[in-house]
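Rather than argue in generalities, we have chosen a single entry, letters for residues, whole numbers for local backbone shapes, without further comment.
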Amino acid sequence: MSRGEYPETGQSAVARIKFATFALPALPLAIILFPAYAILPSFYATHTRIPLTVIGTILLVSRLFDAVIDPMIGYLSDNTRSRWGPRKPWLAAGTIASMICVYPLYVPAADAGPVYYATWFILFYLSFTLIEISHKAWGTDLVRSYMERSEVSTYLGMSFALGNLAFAVMPFYPAFAGHGYDSETLRAVAIMVIILLPLTVGCAMALVPQGRVVARRQTTWRGLIRGVASNRPFRHFLIIFVLAGFGQGMFYGAVYLFVGSVLGLRLDFPLVLLADALCTFAAVPVWYRLIARFEKHRAWGIGMIGSALAVGAMALVSPGRGGLALLLVLVVARAATGAVIYVAPHALLGDVVDYDILRTRCNRAGNYHALIALVTKANGAAGGGLALVLVGIFGFKAGAHNAPSALAGFKMVVLIVSSMVVGCSGIAAWLFPLDRRRHEVVRRRILARADAQQT
């Protein structure tokens, strides 16, 4: 067995410990990611002098920066040659940059303006991308079998869900009782991440190997464009991912306003978020078992359709405390079904990368994860930003009394339209062409060629 390669069963205690250690950095990343696009836009709208429509516009425009920088990060990661492998140097760089950016973004002054928010938001996502691309590409290199890759993704998903849970329970700590997600809570989040991020990344880098090298040919920009454009499974994957992410971005970008302003349950939002986080954490390992039964793409499709139904049904929730019970039921249903995104997409993208390696003899895992990172941020910002702009056009105002037409427009955009888009992604996922049997053929050919090159 080659150094850094795990048994195909992926069930040994050593493998599980290394998978779990590898997944550790996802915990602090989750603590900062969810509030960055689900809490901070609404927080800046209500606690600074930046109008809601301006925040939405910043979210949309900032993605132009990512369109340039994300593919560059992926390209550099794939072509880096160092004693620590291609991924770890960039992971370390992103960690240092994140430690610098997170506090200014999460602790704005009351007179912070659009330039302040745009600057720190862009720098924050740049540092986050350095970590995300390097870490996920490393995970793709770590193992190659169909279910082992799902196992790694499950550990990543559980670590990420645990980070979400850590953020969700913060308002229930005695020190933050009655605060909700206010400036003091967000300040504590920033400090927590500054401490946890270097610790978890350091453990992963020191204790987990890079993974077996199966392709040594370096990629070029022209080869990258041609390879991605001709990769049919990736084109199909991209359709699923764009639809799912855009629809979810529309919902997440305005969920704080939905619970707080539309339903009048602002003080109960921490409870709603806690229920979501708890259920997600519990559901992630269940989806691993469902993937073993139904395969990755079908499990993804089932989860997205279930999530869409739950979000659409939230339009039936009545404002006030009387609607809290139904809201919690639907939040739990959405979390249980939506938890599939923590396992299936990342594992499936690794299979798509293997297909590209077989065809091109280049390992472009960094580039593929960079493209998906770009799409993820574009989805969140474009979906969330468009939702905020549209509800503003309908006349909805954060923290103010809204007319029935404004509330109806808000529900139509944030709940109904978003759920329809997510539902379409579920149908597309069910039809994905690269299943377990086809991937096994790809994997065996890759490993056979790598063995032949070593002899």
Confidence is low (pLDDT under 50) at residues 1-10. Residues 13-454 form a domain with the Growth Hormone; Chain: A; fold (CATH 1.20.1250.20). The chain is about 75% helix and 0% strand. The first helix runs from residue 13 to 23.
